[in-house]
Design a protein that fits this description.
This protein is of the alpha+beta class and 254 residues long. The protein has 9 helices and 7 strands; from the N terminus they run αββαβββββααααααα. It has 2 domains: 108 residues, Ubiquitin-like (UB roll) (Roll); 135 residues, Alpha-helical ferredoxin (Fumarate Reductase Iron-sulfur Protein, Chain B, domain 2, Orthogonal Bundle), CATH 1.10.1060.10. InterPro entries: 2Fe-2S_ferredoxin-like_sf, 4Fe4S_Fe-S-bd, 4Fe4S_Fe_S_CS, Beta-grasp_dom_sf, Helical_ferredxn, SDH/FRD_Iron-Sulfur, Succ_DH/fum_Rdtase_Fe-S, Succ_DH/fum_Rdtase_N.
């Protein structure tokens, strides 16, 4: 009896679609057979294999972005039932139906659920979220970090640039140029590195510019929504303290 109910079970989707960056959005409904263990990505693949909506119309397949399918690359970020999250980690068994899929509104839509995360990557460039090296030759072993410091730094390094924290932040929108919590947290990560700290002042200067750390309204949505549990608000507080110290040192000419 149970097997029969599973065979006949359907999953309903309401997907927000958009044909191009300049076109308007609309919703389209789909219904696909249920399979145990399916997630949002496997559901989208099922729709792609048979792109027919609930009206019976053959339509263009739904477009989305994904890569690793292991909640590491961050590519499959979308709004699922009103919450920004990773589609690969969203199990159908845990979602209320109909499952509503929308692109994240913080970023420009390319097509359907595919978004352009350039805003986030440009923010990382702005704060120089990397460790420069002199050439590509073997420089030998790098400086060692204390184990306690390495452990909390590792937590910050889990960021997968998924953009969920920017989507959840009310201060990141088309009316502001706030760089967002992810870039601020990466400044903390690279400034804590024995080699990266050589460029610490440059990163702090970037955070002190317009759209930098002063754009944070302390809503704390970012830390609640981060799929990796990164302590983003702690990083923001630490960088707020460091930029304040840097500002006073600059005034005093120290």
């Amino acid at each position: 009896m149970a097997e029969t109910s599973v065979v006949n079970k359907k999953v309903k989707f309401i997907i927000t679609r958009q044909e191009s960056p300049d076109s308007g959005s609309y919703t389209e409904e789909f219904e696909i057979p249920y399979r145990p263990g399916m997630n949002v990505i496997s559901s989208l693949m099922e729709i792609q294999r048979n792109p027919v909506n609930n009206k019976g119309d053959h339509i263009a397949p739904v477009c989305w972005d994904s890569n690793c399918l292991e909640e590491v690359c961050g590519a499959c970020s979308m709004v699922i039932n009103g919450k920004p999250r990773q589609a690969c980690a969203a199990l159908i068994d845990n979602l209320e139906q109909p499952v509503r899929l929308q692109p994240m509104s913080t970023f420009p839509v390319v097509r359907d659920l595919v978004i352009d995360r350039s805003r986030m990557f440009n923010a990382l460039k702005r704060v120089k979220a990397w460790i420069p090296i002199d050439g590509t030759y073997d420089l030998g072993p790098g400086p060692r970090m204390a184990e306690k410091k390495r452990q909390w730094a590792y937590e910050l390094s889990k960021c997968m640039t998924c953009g969920v924290c920017l989507e959840a932040c009310p201060n990141v929108n088309e009316k502001t140029n706030f760089i967002g919590p992810a870039a601020i947290s990466q400044v903390r990560l690279f400034n804590s590195h024995p080699t990266g700290e050589m460029n610490a002042e440059d990163r702090l200067e970037a955070l002190m510019e317009d759209g930098g750390i002063d754009g944070c309204g302390n809503s704390q949505n970012c830390v609640r929504s981060c799929p990796k549990g990164i302590p983003l608000t702690t990083s923001i507080a630490e960088m707020n303290k460091d930029t304040t110290k840097h500002m006073f040192k600059r005034w005093l000419g120290v």
